[in-house]
Every structure is written in C-alpha cells, then in structure tokens.
Amino acid sequence: MKRRLSPHWKKICIRFETVLSEITTVRNEAIYAIKNLEKWMKPEPVQKSMTSLLDSCYIQKEPVGVVLIIAGWSLPVQLSLIPMVGAVAAGNCVMIKPSETCSHTAHLLNMLLPNYMDNSCFQVLSAGHGDLLEILENKFDHIFFIGDRLTGRQVMQAAAKHITPVSVILGGKNPCYVDKLCDLTLTAHRIAWARFMNAGQNSLAPEYVLCHPDLRDPLIRELELCVHEFYGKNPQESEHYGRIASVEHYKGVKDFLSCGKVAFGGQTDDHERFIAPTVLIDVKETDAIMQQEILGPVLPILTVQTLEEAIQFVNRKDRPLAVYVYSNSQKVIAEVLQKTSSGSFCSNDNMIQCLYTRLPCGGIGNGVGIYGGKFSFDTFSHSRACLLRNTAVECVTYLRYPPYAEKQLHLMQWASSLSRTNSWCNIL
Fold it and tell me: Of 3 and 47, which is predicted with more confidence?
C-alpha cells in the first residue's frame, strides 16, 4: 500500500528552502540598501570643461514616481520584495502585483507590510491575470516585470501606450557545460541541488547539460546518487522535496517527460502535483523541452564532441539568463566566458550568483533592464543633470553670442572641449 506523505514534509522542506531563497535574500537586500543608501543618494560630480570651470556640475538621483512591480510566481516573496527594496530606497511609491498563482503570498504581504512601512507609499494588488491588462491601462512612472515571455510582451505593449519605462526580466534556457576536467561528484551535487530545489521552479536553474558522450553515463550515475542522497529512493515520500505550484504548470512540465528518453525518475502523481527528479537523454534540439523554459525538476542531458561545438550550440539560441560551466581548467572557463553572452555567468556552481548583492540580475537580448542592490536603486531613479552656473565666467561665454565670427568659434571649441590628457579639466 502506498504511504501518503504527512503534511509534516511541508514544514521541513518549505521552511528550509523558503528561509534560504526567500527570507534571507530579501533581508540581505534590505540591509545592503540601508547601509549604502546615503552613499547612493549623494550627488555624483562630473568632469568639467573650461566653460564650466567655476560652475557646480553633478548628477542628482531622484525618484521616478509610482512604480508597478509585477512579480513572478516561482519565488513570490523574493521576486516581489527585492525590486521593492530598490524602488522604495529610491524614494518611490510602489504597487506590487504578485502572481495570481500566489494568492497566499499576496495576502501575507497585505497583512505584514503595514506593520513596517508607511501605508501611503505602497499597495499590494490581489488580482488575477485577467485583471493585469486592466491594471496596465493606468499610467505608471516605471513598470517592473518578472515572468514569462508572453506576459512580458503584453506588459511592454501596454507600457508603450503611455511611453512608460519598463524593466522586463525573463527566463530562458540556461546551459550548463560539464568538462571532462572536473570533479564529477562535486559537479553532480551542485547541478542536482540547483535543478531540483523547489522542485526545479527557479529561472536561474540549469535548463540543460552539455557534455562529451563519454561523460554522459558517469554524470547520470552521479546525479542519480545525489537524488538518492538528497531525497531517498522514493522522493515522493521525502520530507525535503517540493511540489509544482499549480495544476496548469504541472501539466506543462509533465508534458516535457515525453521528450527523449527517461534516464531516471519520470514518476508523477496528478493528485499531489508531484514530478520526480528526472534526467532525460536522447533529447533533440527541436523538442519542446529545448524551446521552452522548464521551471520543473526535469534535466535534459545532450552530448557534444568538443567545447567549440558546445559553444556553438549555446550561441544558436537566445542569450540566456545564465551560463554555467564546470571545469578545473581556467582555459576552458575563460573560453566559455569570452565566447558566450548571458545575463550572468558562473563557473563550478549554479544560481549562487543571485546571492551576491553587488551583482546585478537581468538578461541580455531577452528582456530589458537589471536589478539587485544599487542596480535596483539606479533602475528606479532618474539621473537628473544639474548645472549651477557661476556668472563670473561671462568673459568666456559671451563668445557664443551673435554676431558670429570664425575666431569666436575656435575659442568656444577650445573652451568647451574635454582634454584627452591629464590636464586641468580632469583634476576637477
């Protein structure tokens, strides 16, 4: 008789992964902003020319106004509050729209935020996806979106009506190249943790692995050992393994299991929205799982003969949110770094780059903008050009007035040009 897992699994699994990926990251973001906000807000001096020698020239950061944050569902607290920290730090009012999949998160934020923040500077919207387009009919000063490409396109189209600046952070197909010169046991542990944590529901998780044919089967054996170590022989009964967030998404991830051949895993349970940690082989580049973001505990492993072939494979696709490489060779790591392009890059680990508050998060060529730490503050700030003129320099600036003469033009060019050498205009 099959043993049904008691609700106790949720307490262990959800607490550990939530504290690590949701609470700790948001707390660090807030602390980092508090410690550095005074420095971020200071006027930034700029280089001067002869015409501005006696003037005060600087860039002043000011809030853009009202910011709409449309958060993703995979890590709903983090994806709502990390951009909010930057927006509030920059002095804006914020409206947060959690995903319709995360109604409990919206309720929790509505309940907790008033205890810590001025109610006049934020609002949490509890609305379904159908209401999002209605919300977007309103004029905002900046719209920040994290989620899928289809909704991102709708957000950008709606923003275009009001010529509203947008940040659109999209997922993608994050490649992971495993070199022959690597610690295979360590590699398998880190890949398995990243792909199967939160049941694979993380946009920074590796989406597929590229490796040499001789390495494929040993890597699969190591990954299977990791799954047994992490979750036991039956992950469905594990206290440390999660479930898919919604029925709709569960069905989508389950459909991916028909791609290629299951190396291990593949078990599902519709009632629990359970999908076992799964590795697929013999997947084709044209299969659906290689065209869409997985956001689930399924990992395709494809083989390539050379590093150059792996790089070509990666570069045939849209530039991903992250590129990963496992190798003990600095030459291999450097080559992947130099010959690929992505939102972020990490060698010999996965997803850890998002824990560093000084590193930005965002894509390239697939979405718009970056956030995190000071990058969030800058995203939600207007850089105001400020020039406080001194009237004493009229002896030079009068040359701009008509009637014009060639001599005046030459003198004005000299006075307003920046020097390429270390001269007086670089000292100020």
Answer: 47
